[in-house]
Amino acid sequence: MALVGTSAYAAEEGEAIAEENIEQIVVVGSRAAPRSVADSAVPIDVVGGDELGKSGATDMLDMLASAVPSFAARAQPISDAASLIRPVNLRGLPSDSTLVLVNGKRRHRASVIAFQGGGVNDGAQGPDISVIPSVALKQVEVLRDGAAAQYGSDAIAGVMNFVLKDDADGGSISVKTGEFSEGDGAATIIDGNVGLPFTDDGFVNISFQLKNADATSRSIQRPDAQGLIDAGNTDVISPAQIWGNPEIEDDITIFANVGLDLGDDKEFYMFGNYSERDVTGGFYYRNPHSRGNVYSIDEGETLLVGDVGLAETGVPSCSFSNATAAVPLAPSNVPANVGNVLNTQPYMDMIADPNCFSMNQVRPGGYTPAFGGNITDTSLTIGTKGDIKSGFLTDWMYDLSGSVGRNESSFNLSNTLNPSLGLSTPTTFETGKYIQLEKTFNADLVRGIDIGLYEDLNFAAGIEWREESFEIVAGEESSWKAGPYADQGFNIGSHGFKGFGPETAGTNVRRNIAAYVDVEAYITESLMLGAAVRHEDFNTFGTTTDYKLTAQFALTDDLSLRASHSTGFRAPTVGQANVVNTQTSIVEGNLIQTFLAPATDPLAAFYGASELTPEESTSFAGGMVYQNGDFFLTVDAYSIEVTDRLAQSSQVDVLAEDYDDLRLLGVQNPELISGVTFFTNDFDTTTSGLDIVSNYSMSLFGGETGLAMAYNFNQTEVDSFNPDTTSDGKVRRLEEGMPEHRGTFTVSQSWDSMSMFLRANYFGEYWAVHADDTSDWGAETADSAVTFDAEASYFLNDSITLTAGANNILDQEAQELKPGTKGAVGGVYYESGPFDYNGAYYYVKATYSF
């Protein structure tokens, strides 16, 4: 019930295409019997598990990005929860517009929502595919075509199917270690796979991976922090903040795949995983002179002084008044005699009064919060499939399955304060959890029906029931509590990432049921036509019906044309509809604390939010396939129109003139909220592009030589948007924030005892923006770039392979931040770049196979 596909990079390493040009079977794209790649009506890339492992990349995201040009994954150095689970995109659309399958079954999404997702992924909630180790995979199948009518919500950009190994014997164990040319980011990965028999008619295939990776730093000392040091403040560290990859500790994952032949053409299957990791990343530096609501008033020059008596008894007792500027806070670049507020006489007089305090007494040099989390991911799928040989469904093939998936993100914050608690504030906080839980049941039927066509009509039908829940678990009290000094202007909750309070805790659930019909047949020897229609009913926002049409026509034995047209949809996730979060953003060099509220929250509704609805899509695609011996070429053009596109809004300022109205609506302490964001359906886009994939293998230099080329052109235009909730800067980032041109060219060579490859990666120009700041302050057009990857393997014997290689071997630098912005962000490079800003990465690997 699948198509046959050939990898875009099948020639790489000289493995995927042998002398016989063996083709690979895939299970996405069609529910008909397997067909050759030349007969495929939709473009599908197949990347072998061994091929994915031949890379310096330390997780699945970067492995796929180097193998599929229309797939991208970006580093997230300072991006709240997006640092813990990185968002990805296929064909320029967000991560939750690509449906992810494992062994053909829907994979649950992550609990983390990318609040700072690099523009295209702002607010996206896709699956966490980084937990899938390459050692567990037989292959990855990438369907580059809209498929919502076949598979349901999220399949607007395409489908990715991760096929687990199913060997009943043999296995491998490997150790890989490497680090960046700067001498940091050292990573060690130990992985293994073993196939075992399960009686005489089945298998148990188990894979594991253990990974640890140090943090990287591409930081520079911030000028404001250096100014404090020069002025005599001895409590400021250098650098004041770390800008780089987060630290990953004890990243363990286990995958198991089980199959058993039950006889009579029936089989049982089961697969699942357990994964867990700890991640710690950085935040922005809090300056002890200018950070408003912590150290100063309105980020000005007056120290924020706490009055103990006013907080405890309601009677003012502190002799220093902020209103009269009794304790001045000078800018960070003032002369040394007042550069450190702790050395000024007004400050010394103030702290001598036991009824007064400032947060400088707790963190005199300022502070940089460290944001971390524990991510736990589990899943289990059980099913049976086979032929029905009696009853009214005789001659039908069936597949019945049930799946459950759970992803939990537990957040923590250290080296920070809850200023509203005064001097008794803790400095470490457990800020709460997000939990995503999904349950799915599928029943599928398929059979061939002879209606007088060139081949039997393949008829498939099925139903799917899904339940999705999103739970917010409250953090410890000190992480969200409004302490006794909140009314005096001190920030509420753990600063940088406020804990989830009891008012936001709870579970929200959505259920839906879907039914589909899919037909496909060769009308003549040269013409294949297919159609699918799917109807889904959601208990929260109603129904949707979508369809897909496909066609393939063979002009000659070597050349065929293909086309598809489909409609699709993406339902807003339960998390997007109900999530609550407080985030810190940098806008024009200033730190802004923004509250993310559900669209139905009074604060969000006051500033224009409304009930979320599904986004809808219309896709057109056409292309050609040419295959002659060892030469393979596909060219595919596509256009994807998305209306009512769902994303996180731009920041909307909370105005002082609105404070009284907001209080009447029940919003607490609106004066401490700089801005609000929410999810909205406020813009439409058209994404169009072109994919070219080609490979060729031949005998050369006494061995096998492979040449592989892949190119992707992708362009997004925002057709309409609401200027009240989507800024011009965000529109430009959506349209220009990723390179329109991306290409790779790989040369591989293999002999009996050795193999090697060299890969060139091209990235076109793009609009570079720092973090989520869409203003012109820190943005510019980034130059195109070329990086090179290389690897060589020596087969010591039949069991042992030694490997050495490098990603970005020539240490091509990422785009540097424009002058005047490096100091404000404490970093050197734009984080929104299409390749790793850390520079060259060198690695060695030893593998033992048995």
UniProtKB/TrEMBL annotation:
Q: Has keyword Membrane? A: yes
- In its keyword annotation, does this UniProt entry include Aminoacyl-tRNA synthetase? no
Q: Where is each TonB-dependent receptor plug domain found? A: 38-159
- Localization per record: Cell outer membrane
Pfam families under this entry? Answer: Plug, TonB_dep_Rec_b-barrel
Native species of this protein?
A: Thalassotalea psychrophila
This protein is called: TonB-dependent receptor
What kind of membrane protein is this, topologically? Answer: Multi-pass membrane protein
Entry's family note: Belongs to the TonB-dependent receptor family.
